[in-house]
Amino acid sequence: MTYLNILIVEGNLKEENKNFTDAGIPTHTDSLKQSLDSLQIKTNIAVVNPSSDKNINSVIKNLSNFDGLIWGGSSLNIYNNTPEIKNQIEFMKECQKKVKNILAICWGMQVAVTAAGGKVKKADSSHIGIAKEIVLNDNGLKNPIYVNKSKKFNSPAFNFDEVITLPDKAICLSSNSINKIQSLYFEINDSKIWGLQYHPEISYEKMISLIEFRKERLIEKRKVFKDETEVTNHISLIKSEILNSDKSQRMLELKNWINIISK
Predict the structure, then answer these.
(1) CA 156, CA 245: separation in Å to the nearest integer?
(2) CB 28 within 8 A of CB 71
(3) The domain defined by 4-262 carries CATH number 3.40.50.1820
(4) In the chain, what are the domain boundaries?
């Protein structure tokens, strides 16, 4: 049986991943691996963290060996332009030269857009654990990433930033009331890139864990909640979504992307 060679790019810094682990929360890479396992596909998975890995040049040399790359989320903000963020942008530029199929999720989409000449800014509003009423446009309905997807759907999501300028020849695939660009597609060099601002690979249960983990930060620094009561009420809303959502529909973009790179 043929195995798919997939590279997972970890977007968080090592320190943030340690915070996750210490709190009993899977890292984004762990969540991706679990989701891929649930699809029951045969994969050879490699993981790289371009912010800190010392062997990054050898990884770059071997990028063309991968059938696809998945670049996940992060707590970073791309406009802060730290050395670690610059490293990620430069690595993405190399990936856009050598990897034929890239699935860029949330932070990954923001890095992909920035590397290709688009722009990202702090959003006026945010998604905390859930993005509601994402609507596919005509381009989205025709794109293979959305085969069998409902035209309007909710999804796990956690973002404070948004894409405001698309790269050259990129197309928007979906929007909602918070982010005009919820997903996109573009080609650069020989690379095909699908970007999702939301998280089909992360469960609502993990989103609740992240909200609880970041509760003080969300109240005091981000100011998206007034107090713990608002946090509790919001978590109750997400728990209701768990009861009403279908896992296979929620993860369909990941499954469709695997089907795309398998051909």
Answers:
(1) 11
(2) no
(3) no
(4) 4-262
